[in-house]
Automatic annotation (TrEMBL):
Free-text function comment from the UniProt entry: Converts proline to delta-1-pyrroline-5-carboxylate.
GO cellular component, as recorded: mitochondrion
Native species: Drosophila pseudoobscura pseudoobscura (Fruit fly)
Signal sequence residues: none
Listed pathway(s): Amino-acid degradation; L-proline degradation into L-glutamate; L-glutamate from L-proline: step 1/2
Proline dehydrogenase domain sequence ranges: 223-670
Family according to the record: Belongs to the proline oxidase family.
Gene: slgA
Ranges annotated as biased composition (Polar residues): 102-117
Biological classification of the source: Eukaryota, Metazoa, Ecdysozoa, Arthropoda, Hexapoda
Full protein name: Proline dehydrogenase
Known EC number: 1.5.5.2
């Protein structure tokens, strides 16, 4: 144990000499990444020492001494790496002396040798360095005219080498074969067994992995991010390691984590869609375009939080204030809590509808506290009613929420005590949520703490957070929590974005409601519009459990919903712009691989006078898909993003399998992309440009 204390002391006192430079290079990113790597390696070494403390004393001493030697070697290597990275910068830098240590729960913190005031200054300096470190292409940034037909192969693929074009064509050819795609996961596993790990890794990097994934870690993805940036495209980063578990294991985990330890009490008024059903417990059922997390324990959620924070750090170091990280709320907590919270929200809406008529969210009724007092008038001077009304959230335009959501997110409010309403007939308080045991109340607080930690880190690093949409039985809770995070963090600009799935019948109404809340509570509203990932699963579940189908009846109806919702957002942006308000209080990402939808958005922007420079509309597609849309947009000066997955080859196989399945379902788009690829490959062959090296002079907006 003395050796363990010695190691911990060394962890907090080793010296790093780092250089900062006004001009840019990737050296600052390398140094920062090296420091982060050091912290994780240090934590791992300490874990080894703690594990060795379980051994007999002599063996413990030998193991700990070996770990100490490895740590010293690690620190020497790290110092050389950081010094080299700093030395690679341009002269005129000034030297800082910094001590580094890792805090509790693996979080990183920095302690400067001067005084406590220097810590805040160092963080500001780091942010400023990130902003000023943007690579400045020589001369005026290039802007190309946009072909809104998206038929220009040169614009689509000028960021690619000829080998990358050949690889893309080969991948799309494979994706066109239904039999190969259907059994792709089995084929990949067989290939690994036959070829061995090393040859299998080489094969994957030369095919699917190389096409759809940016790299194995935060360091190896930097060249991809820098090349994207030089061609006007920004990243949405995601660590795409997924568990490859069986259906039986998935069902077991989901059922166990979706039911309270107090039991699944289906009392009067409960809604069946917000209770787990084993037939649909494997949430991967008929879902190819979305990642699924299955709850194991609280420690796994903590690790997921740390992974999201690493993504934030990676995207911050490589994108200079323009990057985004995508997260899922089901990765951060027990799904049972999201189910219960979603049911509370929908039962609250029904309670309000039964009392005042109409339908929809509470704030859409535009009722005041005085209106509610009239509905409770027959109860007289009832203390329960008076206490309830004191906690209603309202403004001059009416009631926003029946419950103090800010207290739920910001404070330690107990869910079981909060979600109670007076019976209009008797005045007795009745629960809208079943009694939650203290341990599960703590789990909810942990989930909110993790999300707060992630969003606060994003704000400090100047990175935006997009909270993904999930199944409809989780979504009311996810949206409610996300809007409260917007209220809390989107005070000066949009840091947090919610995701809206336009295949749902209620999407337009939900977006309008959330836009009204943002306006009335004066925060920046961020939205990512997608078609959706769970349509077949949602339809099957609704039919099996006997509740209304939440999905639009046809593909065309979904397209209409997307365009209608987008048009409403653009209309409100135009009104704000005309009134002299900050138009950036509404920010929209058009996340679509449908070129008709992208074209519609561009036409609407032109018609109502919204330019790319207004920075209120951006576009996003997946890495390796629809390059003929993303790159021409970025090179024409529009805000364009690629969703960038990364992770070790073996651990992203489930992600690659989903990409193959998704491409099988969009054969029309593949057909066009294959045609454009073949045209560009032929053009380079004729012009003797087979060894073309991409070099962009674009700056993302």
């Amino acid at each position: 144990m003395a050796l363990l204390r010695s190691l911990r002391t060394q962890r907090t006192t080793y010296l790093i000499n780092s250089r900062t430079s006004v001009s840019v290079s990737s050296s600052s990113s390398v140094a920062a990444a090296a420091k982060r790597h050091s912290l994780h390696t240090t934590a791992a070494l300490e874990a080894d020492v703690q594990a060795s403390s379980q051994s007999p004393s002599q063996e413990q001493h030998v193991q700990a001494a070996g770990i100490l030697r490895r740590r010293q070697q690690h620190h020497q290597l790290l110092s050389r790496l950081i010094y080299s990275a700093g030395a690679a910068g341009v002269g005129g830098s000034r030297q800082h002396t910094r001590y580094v240590h890792s805090g509790q729960n693996g979080r990183q913190s920095h302690q400067l040798a001067q005084s406590s005031d220097v810590e805040g200054e160092a963080l500001r300096e780091k942010r400023q360095l990130g902003k000023s470190a943007s690579p400045k292409p020589s001369g005026t940034p290039q802007r190309d005219p946009l072909d809104v037909g998206f038929n220009d192969p040169v614009a689509a693929f000028k960021s690619k080498t000829t080998w990358e074009l050949v690889r893309a064509y080969m991948v799309y050819m494979i994706c066109s074969s239904e039999k190969l795609v259907e059994h792709n996961m089995t084929l990949m596993k067989w290939s690994k067994q036959i070829l061995g790990q090393r040859l299998f890794t080489v094969l994957m990097k030369a095919t699917f992995y190389g096409h759809f994934v940016a790299g194995e870690d935060q360091i190896k993805i930097i060249p991809t991010l820098e090349r994207l940036r030089s061609f006007g495209v920004k990243p949405i980063l995601d660590y795409s390691v997924e568990e490859d578990i069986s259906q039986e294991e998935a069902e077991k985990r989901e059922v166990e984590s979706s039911v309270s330890s107090a039991g699944d009490n289906k009392e009067e008024g409960t809604m069946p869609q917000y209770h787990v059903d084993k037939s649909f417990a494997d949430r991967r059922y008929k879902v190819s375009s979305a990642r699924t997390y299955f709850y194991l324990n609280e420690a796994t959620c903590e690790r997921n939080m740390e992974t999201f924070i690493k993504c934030l750090e990676a995207v911050s170091g490589a994108t200079f204030g323009t990057g985004i990280t995508a997260i899922k709320l089901t990765a951060l907590g027990r799904p049972q809590l999201l189910l219960q919270l979603s049911e509370v929200i929908m039962r609250t809406r029904k309670y309000m509808e039964d009392m005042v008529g109409g339908q929809g969210n509470v704030l859409t009724h535009h009722k005041t506290i005085k209106d509610l007092e009239k509905y409770y008038a027959t109860l007289g001077d009832n203390k329960n009613v008076q206490d309830f009304l004191k906690n209603v959230t309202s403004d001059k335009e009416g009631i926003l929420h029946l419950f103090p959501w800010s207290g739920i997110v910001d404070e330690d409010s107990q869910l079981s005590d909060t979600f109670r309403v007076p019976d209009p007939q008797t005045g007795q308080m009745r629960r809208l949520i079943s009694q939650i045991p203290p341990k599960e109340e703590e789990m909810f607080r942990n989930m909110i703490r993790r999300l707060n930690t992630i969003v606060k880190t994003a704000a400090e690093l100047d990175v935006r957070i997009m909270i993904d949409a999930e199944q409809t039985y989780f979504q009311p809770a996810i949206s409610r929590i996300t809007l409260e995070m917007m209220r809390k963090y989107n005070k000066d600009k949009a840091i947090v974005f919610n995701t809206y799935q336009c295949y749902l019948r209620e999407t337009f109404r939900e977006v309008c409601t959330d836009l009204e809340q943002a306006k009335r509570q004066n925060f920046y509203f961020g939205a990512k519009l997608v078609r959706g990932a769970y349509m077949e699963q949602e339809r099957a579940r609704a039919q099996a459990l006997g509740y209304p189908d939440p999905v639009n009846p046809t593909y065309e109806a979904t397209t209409d919903m997307y365009h209608k919702t987008l048009s409403e957002c653009l209309r409100r942006i135009k009104l704000m712009k005309d009134c002299g308000d900050d138009a950036r209080k509404i920010g929209i990402m058009v996340a679509s691989h449908n070129e008709d939808t992208v074209r519609f958005a561009i036409e609407q922007m032109n018609q109502i006078g919204i330019s790319p420079e207004d920075k209120v509309i951006c576009f996003g597609q997946l890495l390796g898909m629809c390059d003929y849309i993303t790159f021409p947009l970025g090179q024409a000066g529009y805000s364009a993003y690629k969703y960038i997955p990364y992770g070790p080859v073996e651990e992203v196989l489930p992600y690659l399998s989903r990409r193959a399945q998704e491409n099988k379902g969009v054969l029309k788009k593949i057909k066009k992309e294959k045609r454009l690829l073949l045209t560009e490959i032929s053009r380079r062959l004729v012009r003797g440009q087979l060894f073309y090296k991409p070099k962009g002079n674009y700056v993302p907006i």
